[in-house]
Design brief:
The chain is built from 4 helices and 12 strands. By secondary structure, it is α+β, with helices and mostly antiparallel strands. The chain has 2 domains: about 150 residues, Galactose-binding domain-like (Jelly Rolls); about 40 residues, no CATH class. Strands 3-2-6-11-8-9 form a 6-stranded antiparallel beta sheet, with no helix packed on it. A 4-stranded antiparallel beta sheet has the order 1-12-7-10. A two-stranded antiparallel sheet has the order 4-5. The protein is globular and about 45 Å long. The protein starts with a helix and ends with a helix.
Length: about 240
Amino acid sequence: MKTQTLLLSFILILVLFALGSVPTSTLDVAVAALVRGELTSTLHIVSDSSWLVSGILVSGWETVEFDDSGWEFTVIPAPVNCGFPTCSFIGKPDISTMWSAIQYQTIYLRKQFFIESSSAVLSATIETRCDDDHDVYINGTLVASDWDGVAGPLLKTDIRTNLQNGKNVIAIKAGDTGGCRHLCVDANIILQTYSVTSRIDWWCKSEINGGRIGQKAGSGKAPRARERDVSAIYS
């Protein structure tokens, strides 16, 4: 079943790549993972109504430790989107535009997520596009910026080295001088969740030892308790 899931995950990545929803770097990682026999999962973070937003600048707002409990949720689609309720203009029609309910010219947004182990991250990218300008922070570090006074462009940023164990935060400062205003976010974090390398090693040793781990020469069978233990680990 896990092998089937691995293949289905890879096929899905290929389809998303063909549709332009997955960058080449992500496809490269997926191919390498398939060769190594790894099963991956994707943490997908997009612009939606789960983000927190404020129109007031407070020191440390972009850091992990900042208390955002008093902030409000974003509104989707962005209220003044000029006919763009989704991010279809950058090829992402399934992702909504977002902004604050009150039409602040400058807003501060935060999105928390958790990673058990940053060493399990195979690839991590974030794509953002704002009408008009924005800064992107990961755990307090500025990773992308666009302040040219006009809408766009689409920023694609590798954030793998900025992630940490446990709690992580994407923080974005977005600004608009007037007219249409909206923000699009599409982040994909690919995590290694399972490897069949050990299972292959186990099967090879099993063949050498006559088909059973721990089997004594000439015994014809393995201790049943150890056989059950291995099954619990690798099935």
